[in-house]
Amino acid sequence: MLFNSYEFIFLFLPISVALFYGLNRLGNKRWPIVWLVAASLFFYAWWNPPYLILLLLSIAINYGLSVALNRAFVAEQERKGKLILWVGVLFNLGLIGYYKYFDFFLGNVNQAVGTSLPLQNIILPLGISFYTFQQIAYLVDSFEGETQGERFLDYCLFVSFFPQLIAGPIVNHQEMLPQFSKRSTFLFKHEDLSVGLTIFFIGLFKKVIFADQISLYASPIFSAAEQGIPLTFSEAWIGALAYSLQIYFDFSGYSDMAIGAARMFGIKLPLNFNSPYKAFNIIDFWARWHMTLTRFLTRYLYNPIALFMSRRRLQQGKALIKRGVGSPAAFAELVAVPTLVTMLLAGIWHGAGWQYMIFGLLNGSYLTLNHGWHMLQKKFGRNLKQVSWYEQRLGQLVTLVAWIASLVFFRAVNAGAGISMLSSMFGFRGISVPPSLEGKLSVLKAFGFRFDGMFHNALLEQAAVGLGLILLLFIVALFFPNTQQWMAHYEPGLGYDHRAALAQRPKWLIWLDRFEWHPTHSWALFTVSLMVISVLNLSNVSEFIYFQF
User: What is the pLDDT of residue 507?
Assistant: First the structure.
């Protein structure tokens, strides 16, 4: 069941909310939790009922392992705890490995050694990467004694809660389970319902009106690259720019809808998207894009690798990085290696294919270069907080171009199609311009220009409209306030600090104070307008991009 479907918006969601608060009136807070678990499992089974068994099996086994880990921690049986943890991690990675990468592995074996092993054509269970990572984190925290031996029902809701089950955010038990134990969470509040509805329909509008419309200018270009059609310079860039906006508003919209749907039940999810195209460097970008995935990778992958490398250097009598400054060798071991390994695995997490590995390695390289640049700046005494407006804009441009180049592989059906498209984008196939310019600018032929038309493959019916829409959506992404800024005073995300956000807000956005969201009739009319416009455009329902992971 999709968030942007009639059955979800007009049946599942309102019925779920109504029965949730209706059961709460009975006075027993366990009944609302039972209902939420049942509704979440129904939501998951709607897509493919047999895979509900897999989800339940995963929940039951991981819960049992977490109980065993808690007992081992209390009994101070560290070796036993490590063994249980490894069993749990291998079980979870085995699930992802089989369903997500088995056919990819067989295909590469066939290609490498000339065999013809039959592919299994395995259907990827929805959300398996998300709920598996979430449970791995819970097992690690149980091993370290950070969990409290929660009730099975609460654990079921923690994993299966439908707003975050399919595509995140990847939530932590410390931010979710305490909410389930509070009686106040389940009391009906008009504010929660109005805030939730507003955020949900803002997200739906982003998905249906922005993401789905701009996808019409991305899909034909990438399909042509898949078929081996040599793209022109302009076609390739329109496709890449359009897709960068499609995934931006698709993921932003989903993140809003997840937070909004959860808020209707009085449950607050953490922010997962914070205007990443406004970032001045790639480090800041990844702190804004898929924020909970970045948090997970940093805590459970990057930090352990960096800690291991640090201890090894200390044992060898080598210096570490101090106050952001260190030797090239220290930087390579303590920053470059952990970053590249982490981002390579992040790329693999997104999908089975060489193109995802390239995507991960590209972003790992970007982050490594960014960290190296910061270290170099600190070495020469530069205050990184004192950056001019010009440097910020240049950094923003470089970050966007680098990100868009990596997104080509993220979207491409294979690595070959991605390389082909990048070749067109960066002029390796020449730059096609209108034939009418040949007389005046024929000298440009010597520099690789061709006068056969900017769009001679006729892949787009209205290229000018596409360019206009790309420009409009970049203006929205780069200059408009995001959802949490509009809703700043009503905690639009778990732990959102509106005072800190206001302190960081650009001065030219001071006008926003007059238009911030409040539960008024005018804002209610605005929300209804967004709903009507979005629902009227639901004729061609499309999946969210991150549902495939």
Answer: 66
pLDDT in tens, 483-534: 998 898 899 988 887 777 666 666 666 666 677 888 889 999 999 999 999 9
Is pLDDT at 434 greater than 90 in this prediction?
no
Rg, Å, the chain Cα set: 25
- Cα distances (angstroms) measured from residue 42 to each of 45, 51, 78, 360, 518: 5, 11, 39, 34, 34
How far is 43 from 49, CA to CA, in rounded Å?
Answer: 10
Position 110 pLDDT exceeds 90: no
3-state secondary structure 119-164: CCCCCCCCCHHHHHHHHHHHHHHHHCCCCCCCCHHHHHHHHHCHHH
Question: What is the DSSP-derived secondary structure letter of residue 450?
Answer: E
**What's this model's pTM, rounded to 2 decimal places?**
0.93
Mean of the per-residue pLDDT values of the chain: 91
Of 173, 290, 350, 371, catalytic: 350
Rounded to whole angstroms, how far apart are CA atoms 474 and 404? Answer: 13
Strand partners, 334: none
3-state secondary structure of 289: strand
DSSP letter string, 334-350: IIIHHHHHHHHHHHHHH
Q: Which two tokens stand for residue 1?
A: 């069941």
Q: How far apart are the first and last CA of the chain?
A: 16
Q: What angle do CA 228, 233, 238 make, to 5 degrees?
A: 90
Distance between CA atoms of 347 and 86, rounded to whole angstroms? 23
Buried b / exposed e along 270-299 (16+ C-beta atoms within 10 A): bbbbbbbbbbbbbbbbbebbbbbbbbbbee
Helix, strand, coil percentages for the chain (3-state, nearest 5) = 70, 0, 25
Q: Answer with the residue of higher pLDDT: 546 or 86.
A: 86
Q: Is 350 a catalytic residue?
A: yes
pLDDT in tens, 55-92: 999 999 999 999 999 999 999 999 999 999 999 999 99
- Token readout for 477 is 């992404």
Report CA 525 to chain centroid distance, whole Å.
31
In the beta sheet, which residues pair with residue 431?
449
